[in-house]
Hints:
Elements: E1 2-7, E2 18-23, E3 27-28, H1 30-38, H2 42-48, E4 59-63, E5 72-77, H3 86-102, E6 107-110, H4 122-136, E7 156-161, H5 167-192, H6 200-212, E8 217-222, H7 231-237, E9 245-252, E10 260-264, E11 266-270, H8 290-305, E12 310-320, E13 331-334, E14 340-343, H9 350-364, E15 369-374, H10 378-384, E16 389-393, H11 396-409, E17 413-415, E18 433-434, H12 442-451, E19 459-463, E20 469-470, E21 477-478, H13 483-495
Parallel strand pairs: 1-7, 2-5, 2-6, 6-7, 10-12, 10-15, 11-12, 14-18, 15-19, 16-17
Antiparallel strand pairs: 2-3, 4-5, 8-9, 9-12, 13-14, 16-19, 20-21
Helix pairs in contact: 3-4, 4-5, 5-8, 7-9, 8-13, 9-12, 11-13
Bound molecules: ligand BES, manganese (II) ion and zinc ion (ZN).
Amino acid sequence: MEFNVKSGHPEKQRTACIVVGVYEPRRLSDVARRIDEVSKGQLSAILRRGDLEGKAGQTLLLHNIKGTMADRVLLVGCGRERELGDNQYRQIIRKAIQTLHETGSMEAVCHLTELNVRGRDTAWRIRQAIEAAQSALYTFDQLKSQQEATRRPLRKIVFSVASRRELQMAEQASFEAQKIADGVKLAKDLANLPSNHCTPTFLADKAKSLCKLHDNLSCKILTEARMKDMGALLAVAKGSKEKPRFIVLEYNNNKKKDPIVLVGKGVTFDSGGISLKPSKDMDEMKYDMCGAASVFGTISAVAELQLPINVVGIIPAVENMPGSQAVKPGDIVTSLSGQTIEILNTDAEGRLILCDALTYAEQNYKPDVVIDIATLTGACVVALGKYPHGLMTNHNPLTNDLLAAGKFSGDRAWELPLWDDYQSDLDSPFADIANIGGREAGTITAACFLSRFTRKYNWAHLDIAGTAWTSGKKDKGATGRPVPLLTQYLINRCSDDSSS
Length: 500
Ligand code: BES
Ligand code: MN
Ligand code: ZN
């Protein structure tokens, strides 16, 4: 899909379709009013007849609108003007794009980017429009033997800004949006790929091919022989025939700054191991590598944007399976940090691979901050649902930066308390720490476990169990989150020099 920005009069656009907004109740937006004027009241006559109320997401496709140079005019309901906020804006854009795609306009000029969105400027509206458009048209059909082809697919869309003065800013926003959208798509594609295709070795090969695309991106792949001190990670890998891989991606584009390290959980399938999961919805555990996928997507976006920072991506990749070699409840292993762990539940495997990756970050880098991203706990889905990621950190400025990046990008996080009070839930009579707490506060006790391995640096943990994919038969699929949040955080880190 090709995106462009431009400014100009709506009636002068020579295009297959021009897209304009109508507020509820039956009120033309500024651009729609202009078209109404040149067409001598055609739009207002149609509204008076009651064809479109203007509710958010309603659409009406019109032909033969006089005075314009467009083949069609698409009216899109925008809801009440003073209620137009972030979510409603994205919904309107998504609906417009889907309608264009299904009604034969192969290109279009969209004026919805000129709407007033509460508290948002032109750059934000362009950014969000492009990201929403790209994701509205996403499909994952590479494993179908025959792809369904849309007869006249939408190929190119021009987003309009009100004045020439805004063009330069809009072009920068458009550039950023496309790179972020590509990162989201990469994350979705990797995550949607099932576990017989997407194995730890496959992820390692992906890392290698990503590095070939960028001069300042390199990678190291550690195989079992070089992972022998990572007792916690290896314990998880033992039950599977698939070999584990420890993937390290390094993006270097700044001689002075310490790296920001992203650690992504890469369990390519989580059966639970000997603590086997119930079979209902178990297929969704192919998504247990969404943290890893988001690290790929973010690093790819950062490299495309050529941000002047250093970023390290660390991905412990394993498959969690039962088998005669598998780790068993009660087994005690020694982690890379030297701390011993009593594995009471083999289904709490994410924290076992992450703890060794977090220690690896400490031993091999001087991280400015470390952020781990993981589909870590079902409890997070219960606590927060599918809208925000769960956020826990040991450093307040980092909390604020991530929450802000989430709000701006529309990829929001919500903080949960990482208080010491919860730590004793992890006491073990036989080892330094147990890998599960009690029934309560499962998301927080999982983060408490990780916190035992992150004392030496500023650290944040994003639990994306509820946000990384959507369930259900029809709209099932990876969301590509939190690529927008992470990329925004990194973009912000380029402009301020505070180290948080
Ligand atoms: N990958 C799962 C968490 C998960 C479950 C994410 C369902 C999304 C949907 C993780 O490895 C896991 O199994 N966690 C256990 C932890 C428990 C054994 C303490 C869980 O949440 O049940
Ligand atoms: Mn598990
Ligand atoms: Zn898991």
